[in-house]
Write a structure and sequence with these properties.
5-stranded parallel sheet, 809 residues, Rossmann fold, alpha/beta, 31 helices, 4-stranded antiparallel sheet, single chain, 45% helix
Length: 809
């Protein structure tokens, strides 16, 4: 039996002890351990059961540490262990070759659950010689790629014969999220006996990854656990503010509450709870907490900036180890320091940001830098003062509206049912702040401002004028936006709402939700509603000349004028005939009243407006031909046996049409991201892959029922040279019902990994995978509709739209 010291040395989370590299191999039923140092190499054999016991001990240590961090005593930790989380059943039944993501918000118990899963894998390993080798790694400890990390620690013969049961913890805490997800899939493909469990927050994993949402505790369960841990039986739901009642449904926050309950008032927000526990941890320091605080902020800034890679030498060496060892906030290895919980790292980094110890302009210089700091920014807007939060958010809104909306979603805590509305300050303070917020959005949105902001101010926020009054009770305000004229103040008191309404100026009324920073989520919500309503109508006005957006829009109007209800007809159209139709329509409109207010129903299923006629006339003036041909391949079966729309096309012609429409969609999406949404940059998920090849399979089925409709599967493969390549569609005709695009996509995993490594500014918001859809190439504006749905999905993930998009006519 090996000495206890050897066993303890073997199993640590990064598998490096004092500079020695450890590599694992199998020898019959035992496990060979090779320790390589600069001076010598030694090898030891351990019984499989012993190795499994050491692994389980390490899992237990990690779990205890997660409980001690909030400030619980050893006795309280022991009590809390009697309320273990339940490993979701799909995790216990993970099959070989599987990659699964365990998803949940901050503090939901992802790491704890992953440790429980690994303990189960250790128990299987101890009794089954064919079981994979259990391993644990924090994502931020992987300095190179994951495969190299594994090969440095496990012999290839073990990987081939048994594989690994691997936990990659905190995959959202590194800027290499996309690469690590790809690497996990590649490892399971290369060593198919392996299985990998990743943990991370919602919204970071691509669609093709199987994920398990970690369920929150019920409020009753959380309260019962807090009662037992604190020993306070008379503790009820009403003992806590609304946001804390919601927070304690996550295990970590329940432990945070338990650690401070009875030692003063419980904070009102989850951010305040983090702050309270962090400050109490500082009280345990060997020296003065005032000395430790700036050191921890410095470590946090370095850790966030460098994906957790902080050397002791860079932060003060051994003196720092001595200063902070009792806080439990930071752990030390031979050469590195790291926060034990990312939650505290982010809080101290947020404090450094609020204290201006790190420059905001260095954080929002590009998307890849923003991605490292985004959770810190979200925490900063929960904890900062009004001026601090407005300074951060105004800069974000002006820099990138997509990034700003993401921070609002994650950082501004929403009001809870039954929560009292906030009490407003005087009208001038509310008006000044709301005007500043809206002006920042205007500047950031650029050409999109007219659709989203309350006044058509364009990019010039100086044109905004706000009149506002706070009601006597102080919990509701009324407001009105106008265009500001020269010499008028940007804000004024709204003394006579009725007079403005009689002048045709809209007057709004709103309660103030609780919380100091409600104004940011409130403004985003109001802009969201305006954007959802106005964006479809803005597209033709902002469409680039000669592009897909303009061309499809014009042809939709022409077909409306010609009363053609179907795009199956694609015979040439005489230019002069269209001009005559436009003139006749204008005369008909003039007979019915003011042209600005009129939409003419022409019998073709489309309302033709005055604006339509103007845009089509301008387009016709630029055309040289007397005959105009519609831009899509025509149907080539005049009289099919059945009347489904796809029956009018031979398979080859349907393939031609599909390729034309999807190539048009790629161009249309690019037009949108280069005009209206240029300021969003790579926060738009589809934009991160373009220019790209849309590789797909078109499935054409035999039979004549609705279930035999054509379907399309496709994926986007980004072009390596983003400066020179244009997007294209490469679609293959298939008659089999068997889906194949998933296999096709897997062939490009290594390429995609390299692409996002080489283009880090594209990685943080990328959501890539493959899509299966019913073929929709017969819409009025087919390419525009596809591009619009892609864009809408991107905006929805950022919080800029909420409901499903409507079809564009």
């Amino acid at each position: 039996m090996p000495k206890e010291k050897d066993g303890a040395q073997l199993w640590v989370s990064d598998s490096q002890i004092g500079g020695h590299n450890v590599q694992i191999g199998f020898a019959g039923g035992d496990v060979n351990v090779t320790i390589n140092s600069a001076s010598e190499t030694s090898q030891h054999s351990y019984p499989r059961t012993y190795v499994a016991d050491q692994l389980i001990r390490e899992c237990s240590k990690r779990r205890d540490l997660l409980r001690r961090l909030p400030g619980l005593t050893d006795e309280q930790v022991a009590i809390s262990r009697t309320f273990d989380l339940v490993v979701p059943e799909p995790l216990t039944e993970m099959s070989a070759g599987t990659v699964v993501a365990l998803v949940g918000p901050m503090g939901a118990g992802k790491s704890d659950t992953a440790n429980l899963w690994l303990i189960d894998q250790c128990q299987r390993f101890s009794t089954n010689e064919k079981a994979p080798l259990p391993l644990w790694v924090a994502a931020r400890d992987i300095l190179g790629d994951l495969e190299s990390w594994i090969i440095d620690r496990v012999e290839k013969s073990v990987l081939t014969s048994a594989g690994v049961s691997l936990v990659v913890d905190g995959i959202d805490e590194t800027s290499k999220t996309s690469q690590l997800v790809d690497q996990c899939e590649m490892i399971c493909a290369r060593w198919p006996n392996s299985r990998i469990l990743m943990t991370g927050r919602p919204g970071i994993f691509p669609d093709q990854i199987n994920y398990i949402q970690l369920e929150s505790w019920t409020e009753d369960s959380a309260l019962e656990i807090i009662r037992k841990v604190t020993g306070v039986e008379r503790l009820y739901s009403g003992s806590f503010p609304p946001q804390i009642r919601d927070a304690i449904k996550r295990p970590l926050f329940a432990m945070l509450v338990a650690s401070i309950y009875g030692k003063g008032d419980v904070p009102k927000t989850s951010a305040g709870l983090i702050q309270e526990c962090a400050l109490k941890s500082l009280e345990r320091t060997n020296g003065s907490w005032r000395n430790a605080f700036p050191i921890l902020r410095r470590i946090a800034v370095a850790s966030v900036s460098n994906d957790g890679n902080v050397t002791l030498a860079a932060i003060g060496g051994e003196a720092v180890r001595h200063e902070l060892s009792d806080t439990r906030l930071v752990t030390f290895s031979a050469h590195k320091a790291s926060f034990t919980l990312s939650l505290f790292e982010q809080w101290f980094a947020a404090e450094a940001l609020l204290q201006q110890e790190v420059a905001l302009e260095n954080i929002i210089c590009d998307i890849s830098s923003f991605a490292k700091w985004r959770y810190v920014l979200a925490l900063a807007v929960q904890t900062g003062s009004l001026d601090q939060v407005d300074t951060i958010m105004c800069s974000l809104a002006q820099w990138n509206p997509g990034a700003a909306a993401w921070v609002i979603q994650k950082g501004i805590e929403k009001p809870f049912t039954g929560a009292a509305y906030g009490e407003l300050p005087g009208w001038r303070e509310v008006a000044s702040r709301l005007h500043r917020v809206t002006a920042s959005w205007c500047l950031g949105l650029g050409r999109l401002a007219s659709a989203a902001t309350p006044v058509d101010a364009g990019q010039n926020a100086e044109h905004l004028r706000l009149s506002l009054a706070v009601e006597e009770a102080g919990n509701r305000f009324i407001y009105a936006w106008q265009k500001r004229t020269a010499g008028t103040p940007p804000i004024s008191y709204l003394s006579n709402p009725k007079e403005l309404m009689e002048a045709g100026i809209g007057v709004g009324s709103s309660p103030a939700p609780p919380g100091d920073n409600w104004i940011w989520s409130w403004s985003l919500d109001h802009m969201r509603r305006r954007l959802e309503e106005n964006l479809p109508n803005l597209l033709p006005l902002e469409a680039p000349r000669g592009g897909i957006l303009e061309e499809e829009y014009v042809w939709a109007v022409i077909y409306g004028l010609l009363r053609r209800g179907s795009r199956l007809r694609s015979d040439p159209i005489d230019t002069e005939e269209i001009c005559d139709l436009i003139a006749e329509t204008r005369r008909a409109i003039s007979r019915h009243g003011p042209m600005d207010d009129y939409a003419f129903q022409n019998g073709g299923g489309r309302r033709v407006t005055r604006l339509d006629l103007i845009l089509v006339t301008e387009w016709l003036e630029r055309q040289q031909e007397s005959q105009l041909t519609p831009p899509w391949p025509p149907a080539d079966i005049p009289n099919p046996s059945f009347g489904w729309v796809w029956n009018f096309y031979t398979p080859d012609r349907l393939l031609e049409l599909t390729k034309a429409v999807y190539e048009g969609a790629l161009k249309a999406y690019t037009e949108l991201t280069q005009t209206l949404f240029a300021e969003f940059s790579f926060t738009l998920a589809h934009a991160t892959s373009l220019p790209a090849t849309l590789r797909g399979n078109l499935y054409v089925h035999d039979g004549n029922s609705w279930t035999d409709k054509p379907t399309l599967e496709y994926c986007l493969i980004p072009a390596a040279d983003t400066e020179l390549e244009e997007s294209q569609a490469d679609i293959t005709l298939e008659r089999s019902r068997e889906a194949r695009i998933a296999d096709e996509y897997d062939r490009y995993s290594a390429y995609l990994k390299r692409y996002y490594i080489d283009n880090p500014e594209r990685a943080p918001f990328s959501v890539y995978g493959y899509t299966h859809t019913v073929l929709r190439v017969w819409d009025s504006r087919p390419a525009t509709n596809i591009a619009f749905r892609w864009l809408w999905d991107d905006l929805k993930s950022l919080g800029w739209v909420s409901h499903l998009p409507r079809d564009l006519k």
